[in-house]
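Hi F.,

I've been meaning to write this up properly since the lab meeting, where we talked about keeping a consistent format for the predictions we share between groups. The idea is simple: the sequence comes first, exactly as it goes in, then the structure tokens exactly as they come out, then a line or two of notes. No screenshots and no reformatting. I'm using this chain as the first example so we have something concrete to point to.
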Amino acid sequence: MDTWHVGEFLRFLTAVSPATVNAYNSDLKEFINWTKGRGCADPMAVGRNEVRAWVAKMSGDGYAPGTIARRLSTLRRYFGWLHQSGFVGLDPTVHISAPKGDTRLPRVLQRSEIDRLFDDATPKNPLDLRDRLTIELLYGSGLRVAELCGLDITNLNTERVALEVLGKGSKTRNVPMNSPSRHLLNLWISEGSQAFDQTYVSGKRDPTPLLVNRRGNRLTRSDVRRILLGLLRAKGLVDRSPHALRHTFATHLLDGGADLRAVQELLGHADLATTQIYTHVSREQLREMHRKHHPRG
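Output, unedited:
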């Protein structure tokens, strides 16, 4: 019997994406294993001292404030559900806050870096085609990594000019594709995908995903990160995370005069305030340009 009721809690989370459920599960497993080592046999044995000690441990281990805040948010939701369900008498996460940290602005790629990363040359082989299509969709449509990995062939509209994406909260939205993405996608669907399967896939390919790895399975976050790092290093560029391409997508749209609410819709943000961080990025870039080039900057 699951004395911690994790399975029931995860089944309760019907309005979140599979990636969020997986993150909650991972956070809870780590917390539960740690608390068991401190003698807690079930959630009723967990008090505020254990939660505070968990936060302190993460801070001492060098976790970023944002990571600690996210993990504490998982615990709050979990223990809040346990309390509402009658499994615990008190919620031990009440009045416990994560350590404060500086809000880090997204590190976007400069236009010159984008020009170096993306080129119009014909892909050398099916592997190169898959890799370039992967990063083109991240930048050209501003997809989250989980959204990219979750794409199925059925998510394409009939004209192949837009994608139906399953975002956070299991909400779907249609996002347009730019011209390079459409070109690479047509190459992939017409012959590239089958050639990739025949040349690079060991074993049986899952027929559902749009993009797969060499094992024939749906791309994972780690796969996407390896793909991007390989392409960046091949062009002599600094390592960046896949999410940086989404940040860059939004910032370049706003720099080009796009409406903030239109960018919010494209990104799938529920709150306009989340999108507004990209206006801060653009202003930061302007301040840096002023500092560098003004005689008295």
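Notes:
The chain is about 55% helix and 5% strand.
The two ends are 66 Å apart (CA to CA).

If this format works for you, I'll send the rest the same way.

G.
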